[in-house]
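Re: your question about Dbl homology domain-containing protein

S., sorry for the slow reply, the queue was backed up all week. Below is exactly what I fed in.
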Amino acid sequence: MATSSFKKKFHVPFFHNTSKTAPAKDSTLQSVLASTQKKNSPSLRRRTIVHHTDCRRNTIWSDNVDEELVANLAPKELNRQEVLFEIIKTEHEYVRDLRLIEEYFINPIKQAEEKHRKHIVPENLNKVFNSISYFLFIHEVISNCLNERQENQFPLVRSISDILLSYVWVFRAYAPYLIHYEDALRELDESIRKKDKLGRLVRKQQKSPSCRNMPLTTYLLKPFQRLLKYPLLITNLLKGTDKDGFDYDKTVSLKLKLDEVLADVEEQKRKYDNMERLRELETRIHGLGHFRLATNNRQLLKESPACQSSFTLKKQPSLRKSLTVMSSPTLNQKRHSVRNLYTLECNDIVLLAERTGATKDGHPVYKLVSRPPSPIDDEPVMVHTRPEDSGVYYED
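Result:
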């Protein structure tokens, strides 16, 4: 997988005083704020800030501010405030869950490794743990910035798009997490099943009341869930933002940039999965010689029976048993039954192979019938269209 996007040294802009960068009050909100200003006491301010209260009680913004303020807001602005509140609140909850993973699982596991002077965490799970530790560091910064903005602009938060836009690059770092997540879960499940040192430690830590009766696998899913939730939240924020408002352009920029970054992350994951499929297929094909199937620009499109789309065979399935294909005309010519022939189709080559068995996991094992393509390096390989050059010969 390409890692160039992660080699860049990013600068983390800490918002020590976000009130200085906060935009001026909207004229449309000024009158509403004025009518409720006398009710905006310090005690009410403290009670309203989500991260200082019980999150289970503070579910929506309108439950935490004066009823008169809610009644005087236009429906669109009310919806916008609810979305802003949800973004800030759920970011805080996300950081809380990441911190729980580090404090109750990652740190105790590291301590156990230091004590026994032995690595007990499998490779993919270790990479996921490293990603989560980084997520905790950077999302804690984002959450603190959002909370500070919420305090400074209480009760009506006027803008957070500038903060999120400053940190949208963070989501590129989710690519390694997504790439190794599934394998990490398999490794964790295997450790728990075998009851090895890692499995026993995880089972012990999961019994802590702070884990809220949820296993580690549930918490490891949190970054993926958060990644899916961001586009929805930003879309809803954009829908609730007036096109004439001061924050509309920044919100549009935020959505476009977020979509771009997430598309790049998805493409990295797709390329990695494709390369893994090619490598795995390469191990199941005998007769490739020095030819490398897994190259950067190659995509596996299909692995299927060679004659599954033949109209004649569909009408007369019995022909599969008697119809044969002869391999290239050498001294060791051999016939191959059509029913065992498969095409391994990539974007630049098509291989014809005979199924000779299966792996322990049930995946087909092949023997190459057509000649291995050349050149053997990463250069493009031309697919011959003339029957005499294809490496496969059909006998009349």
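Residues 287-309+336-374 form one domain. The beta strands are 285-286, 300-305, 324-327, 335-337, 341-346, 350-358, 364-368, 392-393.

Happy to talk it through on Thursday.
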